[in-house]
Amino acid sequence: MGNLNLILFISFAAPLLMTLFVCKGKARTLLIFLALGTVVCLFCGELSTVIMKMLPFDRKYYTANFTPLFEEVFKAIPILVYAFLYKPKKRDLLECSVLVGVGFAVLENAFILAGAASTVSVANALIRGFGAGMMHGVCTLAIGYGMTFVHTKRKLFYTGTTALLTVAVIYHSVYNTLVQSEHQLVGFILPAVTFIIVFVVLQGMEKPKKTAK
């Protein structure tokens, strides 16, 4: 499976790398964060394989209690570095945050669906794509949105970052727990409902600014 993961990563990363030489400005920045999401996914996948062999827990327990922790921490690193060093505009930070989660979700879905190719169906792909895809996007978006408030305030940076990561880890853990239980449907619906609520709220916050102009 390790070789398959690397093959899938190269298949996704190679076209993105070529595109980086063509795109400039904001488009290149967005592609970089999309690519970073795939890099984090590959790293976390390999790390999970090693850690699971070391710990006396089954996969279900591990994915509900350990996976959310280190996946959200590593997904947050590119966002934190970008926010702390470059002080980007709010919209740019939100977009880059979402793309880290999307890049992670795209490659993770490929890993999981390819590993179960003999049993997977179009319905499984749709559920997995929208469920896990939105979940990862919502988690990184939450961190990015929170960073728009704390990244310019050094006193809030560390405590704020810890709080944001905690929220993302708990949300991720709840999702993983639900999709592995008898409440699987609730787990798959949760990210979609959250995404819609977040989208509506963000759109509502932008309207006054457009009107003012």
**Average pLDDT for all residues:** 86
Shape: globular
Structural class: mainly alpha
Order of H and E elements: HHHHHHHH
Could you explain the architecture of this structure?
The chain is mainly α. The chain is built from eight helices and no strands. It has helices spanning about 1-20, 25-55, 60-65, 65-85, 90-115, 120-150, 155-180, 185-210. Helix 1 packs antiparallel against helix 5, helix 4 packs across helix 6 (about 120-150) and helix 6 runs antiparallel to helix 7 (about 155-180). The longest helix is centred in the N-terminal third of the chain and has 30 residues, at about 25-55. The protein is globular and about 45 Å long.
Short description:
The chain is an all-alpha fold and 213 residues long. Helices cover 87% and strands 0% of the residues.
Task: Describe this protein with a few key phrases.
single chain; 213 residues; mainly alpha; 8 helices
Question: What's the arrangement of secondary structure elements?
Answer:
Elements: H1 2-20, H2 25-54, H3 59-65, H4 67-86, H5 90-115, H6 122-150, H7 154-179, H8 184-212
Helix pairs in contact: 1-2, 1-5, 2-4, 2-5, 3-7, 4-5, 4-6, 4-7, 5-6, 6-7, 6-8, 7-8
